[in-house]
Amino acid sequence: MLLDVRELKVEFRTRDGVAHAVNGVNYRVSAGETLAVLGESGSGKSVTAQAVLGILDTPPGHVTGGEILFHGRDLLRMGAEERRRIRGTRLAMIFQDALSALNPVLSVGTQLGEMFEVHRGMSRKEARGCAAELMDRVRIPAARSRVGDYPHQFSGGMRQRIMIAMALALGPDLIIADEPTTALDVTVQAQVMDLLAELRREYAMGLVLITHDLGVVADVADRIAVMYAGRIVETAPVHDLYRAPAHPYT
Known about the structure:
Layout: E1 3-14, E2 17-29, E3 34-38, H1 45-53, E4 61-70, E5 73-74, H2 80-89, E6 91-94, H3 98-101, H4 108-120, H5 124-137, H6 143-146, H7 156-168, E7 174-178, H8 186-203, E8 206-211, H9 214-217, E9 223-228, E10 231-237, H10 238-243
Parallel strand pairs: 3-8, 3-9, 6-7, 7-8
Antiparallel strand pairs: 1-2, 1-4, 4-5, 9-10
């Protein structure tokens, strides 16, 4: 089992009181599998992902219970430095808003290359070459001539491909994609989802796809976990869930 989230609980402590955002979430992901976490805005999908990655804003967010087992080891019991090493190298995330996630004053080649410099000890020239290869891998046209371009010079779909390239850079075992197609038109959505599915098969990695769109997950997910009010209320293989949903919310 690649990822096993057990009875995860997260709360936000504010001046107005305590908000229980995640109330005992359980889900599992195997290598080579795509799990779609499906639910409306505010159901706790992204907060769960942030807790798994260890990027929850604390304060006000606090993990108050449960386990997050990655390759059998509880991430919540690791030290900050060890968890930082795992994040990016073995566990990566594709964020919802690529324009906000990318640094506007650095070229995309610099941002991609930095990962190879920091984690692989490459020279700047070597890292830039790897960045261009990655951009080509996620099908950015004329990648080598665009490696010096800045985020604002790319379309929304191309920026999302750069985010996918960043997530793939160090060959992670698991990628969490948080609403990766939200701001894209339908045609570009399909292209991005096809690319993710292809890369997942090629690299035999696990993929957690967070979304509120039933249509997006129909062709790419193996299983769906339906989330409502901070809990997983139903989990089923994708075709079973569409054919015979068991929970009223689904």
